[in-house]
Amino acid sequence: MKISLTVNGGAVTREVEPRRNLVDFLRHDLELTGSHVGCEHGVCGACTVRVDGAPVRGCLMLAVQADGCRVETIEGVAESGALARLQRAFRAENALQCGFCTPGMLLTAHEMLASGGIGGRRDIRELISGNLCRCTGYEAIVDAIETVMRGRSAR
Ligand code: FES
Ligand code: FES
């Protein structure tokens, strides 16, 4: 099937197999490898991308379902500068080790900060509960997000 969509601000038209999921389309057809593939069952959050402004699991959406949509990946959002404070805070707080979960964590954290509905660490933990990290134990990730949430300068 032929699909046309916007990816990170650029128009894209491609032939895709109907069974191709969105994250595989982004990674293999467009070489945008910042979104990762972990569980492929909607559990780990490594494949998080934005579709029409909302975070979605790229492994649970078919590429053909994104026809006509606006898709943003970690590459596009980072390049826009929107993640700069979070990226600095993650680095300062050692909130990443292997980095596999980091793109999804950053997109999720950015979304929650933009929504403004976070009261404290418990809320942060709840909001990142859909993003699994095998390395950090989450404490440093919560520290980093809290740093940005409270407007403290990220060292
Ligand atoms: S790979 Fe999509 S949620 Fe895990
Ligand atoms: S830093 Fe390795 S999975 Fe999170």
The largest pleated sheet is described as:
5 strands, mixed
Bound molecules: FE2/S2 (inorganic) cluster
> Percentage of helical residues?
25-40%
What characteristic shape results from the CA principal axes? elongated
Which structural class do the helices and strands define?
Answer: alpha+beta
| Widest beta sheet: strand line-up | 2-1-5-3-4
Number of helices: 6
Series of H and E elements:
EEHEEEHHHHH
User: Proportion of β residues?
Assistant: 5-15%
The unreliable regions are none
- Overall pLDDT metric: 94
Distance between the termini: 48 Å
Radius of gyration: 16 Å
Q: What is the count of β-strands?
A: 5
Topology:
Layout: E1 2-7, E2 10-15, H1 22-29, E3 48-51, E4 54-57, E5 70-72, H2 74-79, H3 84-92, H4 102-115, H5 121-127, H6 139-149
Question: Can you give a write-up of this model?
Answer:
By secondary structure, the protein is an alpha+beta fold. It has a 5-stranded mixed sheet. The chain has helices at residues 22-29, 74-79, 84-92, 102-115, 121-127, 139-149, and strands at residues 2-7, 10-15, 48-51, 54-57, 70-72. Helix 3 crosses helix 6. The site of one FE2/S2 (inorganic) cluster (FES) has 12 residues, from loops. The site of one FE2/S2 (inorganic) cluster (FES) has 10 residues, from loops.
Tags for this entry?
alpha+beta; 6 helices
Summarize the entry for a quick read:
This protein has helices at residues 22-29, 74-79, 84-92, 102-115, 121-127, 139-149, and strands at residues 2-7, 10-15, 48-51, 54-57, 70-72.
